[in-house]
Amino acid sequence: MQTALSPEFKSTPHGDEAEAILRKCVHCGFCTATCPTYQLLGDELDGPRGRIYLMKQVLEGHEPTRKTQIHLDRCLTCRNCETTCPSGVDYGHLVEIGREVVEERVARPAGERVLRWLLKEGLTSPLFGPAMRLGQLLRPLLPAALKAKVPPRPGPAAARWPTRTHPRAMLLLAGCVQPAMMPNINSATARVLDAAGIQTLVADGAGCCGAIRLHLNDREGALAHMRRNIDAWWPLVSAGRVEAIVMNASGCGATVKDYGHALAHDPAYADKAQRIAQLTKDLSELLPDLVPRLKPKLRARSITSLAFHPPCTLQHGQKLRGGVEAHLDELGFDVKVAPRESHLCCGSAGTYSVLQPEVANNLRDRKLAQLAPLSPQLIVSANIGCIQHLQSGTQVPVRHWVEVVDDALAS
Fold first, then answer.
1. Which in 65, 70, 327, 354 has the greatest CB count within 10 A?
2. In angstroms, rounded to a whole number, what is the distance separating the alpha carbons of residues 360 and 73?
3. Residue 50: which of 14, 83, 84, 74 has the closest Cα?
């Protein structure tokens, strides 16, 4: 794709990166075939190719409009288009640039500004935990729409953290909303790693990976979160105390693996960010090492039939496909994925389900309809957002796959 960037973007870091990405696009349209919003809405401007044209126009000096902003907002950033693209267009980074530029030039309605501020400040605040506990206490009284966003109170297992030490150790990012909404995912991760002879460490001071603010166009706020996490992890990393930084939320994993890119122009953090990104592993990437260690410790289990929903941040963001299913199968579980549309987003996409509820719920129901013929006892996934969003549309329990492995460990 030929480009002619306007002077304000030419020879700038954002401009140079965007131009390089745009030049890879050959207009083929393969991306539209796998874009969830295009499949649902049928509008060229709600597909990657159309959005690329919109961003190209803005970077070439055309004034963006509210319509431009709406079409970019509707993008899930699922990055399915990257998996499909034969030319290697880095759409995820391009849309971050495009949204940031448009955000600076197009004023949002007051209601949107308030909601987006509440999300980026509230979800990453220390007060989120107490607020969630209050919501869980009042859950029976909440209206259905709000009740769907508040999971039930966790069971006693969520507080059970291993106390043994091991020569091998890994860092775990606890996350921002996960400790309050679904704390058993973190404690189950620690118990499974403990059973495999690995100690789980959580660094004081580490929190949100930065994805929430980044997706809400608060780039500086996101970078501040990234630097804070690096500072929290660096003493253990630099001392060689940990062999990996483990992510049990694939959305966080995709973001932390991108720290090197995000902070590439920060001389104080560029090298550290690159090192952190290299050390970061999705929990599923440990399974080849974990499975032979866990196999002798598994007991008979009542739930074996699982439907696995691979999050977009796992299969498209991190390019990790098939590992969870294959290794759970090796552990004795019967795991299936939807025979059709397993590549499509469930509609969660971070804060998307709050900001674009109609599209998000349509995609959720479409995903659940594809999973229903599998008749699973349980739906499992690898990202808290997907888990909560899918659970809001089905009576079939939805959990993280590591919780299922944890349940099957011998006492």
1. 327
2. 12
3. 74
List the structure tokens of 29.
Answer: 């349209």
Burial classification of residue 300, based on how many CB atoms lie within 10 Å of its CB (0-12 exposed, 13-18 middle, 19 or more buried): exposed
Task: Using alpha carbons, select from 311, 373, 303 the residue that is nearest to residue 338.
Answer: 373
pLDDT, residue 411, reads 54
Contacts with 283 (C-beta within 8 Å, 6 or more apart), sequence order: 189, 246, 247, 248, 382, 402
Q: Residue 113 CB: number of other CB atoms within 10 A?
A: 11
DSSP 393: T
Q: Which helix (H) or strand (E) holds 357?
A: helix 357-371
Q: What is the pLDDT of residues 358-390, one digit of tens each?
A: 999 999 999 999 999 999 999 999 999 999 999
Q: How far is CA 105 from the centre of its chain?
A: 28
Token pair for 395: 């009576």
Comparing CA positions, the residue from 192, 154, 161 lying closest to residue 410 is 192
Contact predicate 310/321, CB 8 Å: yes
Q: Could you give the count of Cα atoms lying within 13 Å of 268 in the half-sphere of its Cβ?
A: 7
Instruction: Classify 172 as helix, strand or coil.
Output: strand
CB-based contact 314:320 (threshold 8 Å):
yes
Give the list of residues 6+ apart from residue 13 with CB closer than 8 angstroms, or none: 265
Cα distance between residue 163 and residue 207, in whole Å: 22
Secondary structure E strands in 173-210: 198-201
Q: Check: CB of residue 172 under 8 Å from CB of residue 189.
A: yes
User: Are the beta carbons of 34 and 84 closer than 8 angstroms?
Assistant: yes
pLDDT in tens, 153-200: 888 888 999 999 999 999 999 999 999 999 999 999 999 999 999 999
Longest dimension (CA), the chain: 66
> Do the Cβ atoms of 349 and 78 come closer than 8 Å?
yes
Nearest in space to 301 (alpha carbons), one of 154, 397, 411:
411
Do the beta carbons of residue 84 and residue 30 sit within 8 Å? yes
**For the chain, what is the radius of gyration of the CA atoms?**
21
Buried b (16+ CB within 10 A) or exposed e, 47-78: bbbbbbbbbbebbeeeebeeebbebbbbbbbb
Q: Which residues of the chain have pLDDT under 50?
A: none
